[in-house]
Specification:
Elements (H helix, E strand, L loop, with lengths): L1 E5 L4 H14 L1 E2 L2 E2 L1 E8 L2 H10 L5 E6 H6 L3 E4 L5 E6 L4 H10 L5 E3 L19 E2 L11 E4 L14 E6 L2 E11 L6 E6 L4 H11 L13
Parallel strand pairs: 9-11
Antiparallel strand pairs: 1-4, 1-5, 2-3, 4-7, 5-8, 6-7, 10-13, 11-12, 12-13
Length: about 220
């Protein structure tokens, strides 16, 4: 069984994602550090996950055996195909082992599978609300914390936002806001397609199809 996780992960990014999980969830009654991954049981599931993770320019692939062999506990969590890699801590040493040895070995560039890829921007954008797009809970939606948003007042049910990481943004709809002891949880419905696709759509609608982003207007 293959495990997939999108993005150019670094120790710093993994630490932040694991700390967000630690803030939100417990395991056996104790807060848990964890990283979300998706598990592909067969070739069809793998291709479906490639399309699902199309907002990431890089996809990293491993296996259940490799993760467990590296000493990490792997749990099926919430709904298939979501799994959580459980970490003992977010020490640099722990994350440094996790990064190359388990869930993030060789990369697949381009993601041009069944039309999932496409031309991508070479500059980062600023997201409205940071999120790990692999993080899903019992609702099946991506979740994150409201207080991480650039402007929390803009995050309301029905609003279309840019979510994820600055280097791999995704267009999403805010589904709901759920107050919890650890903070208000925001549920996000990730919309199909790349951010660049939506940008191109808006430019066509405004008659700016021939202009590139950032170019001077006549």
């Amino acid at each position: 069984m293959l495990l997939l996780r999108g993005g150019e992960d670094t120790v710093q990014k993994l630490r932040h994602h694991a700390e967000r999980t630690h803030r939100a969830f417990t395991l056996d009654g104790r807060p848990v550090y964890g990283l979300s991954v998706f598990c592909a049981l067969d070739e069809l599931a793998r291709r479906q996950l490639y399309r699902r993770l199309a907002s990431y320019p890089v996809l990293r692939v491993s296996s259940v055996g490799r993760v467990r062999g590296a000493g990490f506990r792997l749990l099926p969590t919430f709904t298939r195909p979501h799994f959580t890699v459980v970490l003992a801590s977010v020490d640099t040493e722990e994350l440094a082992v996790c990064l190359p040895a388990s869930i993030l070995p060789p990369r697949i560039q381009g993601m041009d599978i069944d039309g999932a890829g496409g031309e991508r921007r070479d500059t980062m954008v600023t997201v409205d609300i940071p999120a790990d797009l692999h993080d899903e809970d019992e609702t099946g939606y991506v979740w994150t914390f409201l207080d991480e948003a650039r402007q929390p007042s803009l995050i309301r049910p029905g609003t279309i936002v840019l979510a994820g990481d600055d280097d791999a943004p995704a267009v999403a709809e805010v589904v709901d806001l759920i107050p919890k002891a650890a903070g208000t949880i925001v549920h996000l419905r990730i919309l199909p397609g790349l951010f660049d696709d939506y940008e191109a759509l808006v430019r066509r609608a405004r008659g700016l199809e021939g202009d590139k982003p950032g170019s001077p207007m006549a």
